[in-house]
Design goal:
Blueprint: E1 3-20, E2 25-38, E3 43-48, H1 59-74, H2 82-91, H3 97-115, H4 119-122, E4 129-131, E5 134-136, H5 141-153, E6 158-162, H6 167-181, E7 186-190, H7 197-209, E8 214-218, H8 226-234, E9 240-242, H9 249-257, E10 263-266, H10 268-271, H11 274-286, E11 291-293, H12 300-312, E12 316-319, H13 323-326, E13 332-334, E14 337-339, E15 342-344, E16 353-356, E17 360-361
Parallel strand pairs: 5-6, 6-7, 7-8, 8-9, 9-10, 10-11, 11-12
Antiparallel strand pairs: 1-2, 1-17, 2-3, 4-15, 13-16, 14-15
Helix pairs in contact: 1-3, 2-3, 5-6, 6-7, 7-8, 9-11
């Protein structure tokens, strides 16, 4: 099964509501789609969102990395040689983790299809469904409280709250949300690097004393400030999750060695795909740490790949894969089945992606 082509396209899917964090605001999922074609007719699919504010990868950068470096390297190779293809993928260009993630996903999809099994089973998984949280964007406290209440009424048991944009309002935001949804719903908060270490300790202490019952806090301080994050971790009983700080297995090793966080949040676009994500899980297991699996407001192909990963590893206990649920429509036929908080993997070979609507192929 020889790789005969690497085709790229773009897709834009409007969101039901603008997505706002401490670092960006977007109104649609705009992703690069990748199709790895073979002489057998089998096609592996991948996807990458251009998240310049976080990964530094724009649409042009993703397409350029594929056109100039990745496609020429993969053409003519055996599509069933997953390990060899992944090795070449990682070495053919420096950085460009989003482009690499798109191809990593597509190559895994191609490999699993060649074997005739769903990807999660080839990873050793047995659970067929996972439960995700849903994200409430940063807005005024009353609007966030209503959004959280709407989510609970739709069946979500875990709500992820974006904070860190205006720290003076974060306490009021959480107070309004907790009063609206009651005490039976888990609340996670994500500061997206929005606080200083001292500010984080003070805010978390106030929230804890107020009885907000927070399950965890993601990335309270700047990504490179591991000393600052360790300072926060040592001074709060709320579990701290590294997000923007973790890009690789070596990052995870350093974070756990320095006790900078209690957990890490794996995102395929940061680490370059499923292969490195699995290595991060292995490092976490060595340190006895549970794992959160997140996403970058990604489309259904990325999200399906993440769900297959989550279904394969018991260490992955927190799921934040709600991108497709925030979209106003679903242009992808096949893949994982997103029904509110419950996401079910497909038992079709590979990722189970079958066809597309409204793709602008290049």
């Amino acid at each position: 099964m020889r790789i005969t082509g690497v085709r790229t396209g773009t897709i834009s899917v409007p969101l039901k509501k603008p997505f706002k964090t401490a670092v960006r605001s977007v109104d649609a999922v705009r992703d690069v789609i990748v199709a790895v074609e073979t002489d057998s007719g089998t096609i592996g699919y991948g996807e990458a969102p251009p998240t310049g504010a976080i990964t530094g990868d724009t649409t042009g950068a993703i397409l350029g990395a594929i056109d100039d470096h990745i496609r020429p390297t993969l053409l003519g190779r055996d599509g069933e040689d997953l390990e060899g293809n992944l090795k070449i993928l990682q070495s053919c260009v420096v950085g460009n983790t989003s482009a690499k993630a798109a191809l990593d996903i597509a190559l895994h999809d191609l490999w699993a299809q060649s074997i005739g099994a769903p990807l999660y089973r080839l990873f050793g998984g047995s659970r067929k469904s996972v439960e995700t949280d849903v994200t409430v964007s940063v807005n005024e406290p009353d609007e966030m409280a209503q959004d959280a209440l709407n989510a609970v009424e739709s069946g979500y048991k875990v709500i992820k709250i974006k904070v860190g944009k205006e720290s003076s309002k974060d306490f009021d935001r959480l107070k309004a949300i907790r009063e609206a949804i009651g005490q039976d719903v888990e609340i996670r908060i994500d500061a997206n690097q929005g606080w200083t270490p001292n500010e984080a300790v003070d805010i978390l202490d106030r929230m804890e004393k107020a009885g907000f019952g927070l399950e965890l806090v993601e990335q309270p301080v700047k990504a490179k400030d591991l000393d600052g994050m360790a300072y926060v971790t040592a001074r709060t009983s709320i579990p701290v999750v590294a997000d923007e700080s973790i890009w690789s297995a070596s990052d995870a090793l350093e974070i756990f060695r320095r006790k900078a966080a209690d957990m890490v949040n794996i995102k395929l676009m940061k680490c370059g795909g499923l292969a490195e994500a699995r290595r991060i899980v292995a490092v976490s297991e060595i340190f006895g740490a549970q794992v959160m699996l997140g996403s970058m407001l990604e489309g259904k192909i990325c999200a399906s790949a993440a769900v297959h990963l989550a279904a394969a590893y018991g260490a992955i206990t927190r799921i934040d894969i709600d991108g497709p649920l925030l979209c106003a429509s679903d242009p992808i036929v096949g893949g994982a089945d997103f029904k509110g908080p419950d996401i079910r993997v497909s038992d079709a070979p590979g990722l189970g992606v079958m066809s597309f609507d409204e793709i602008n192929w290049h």
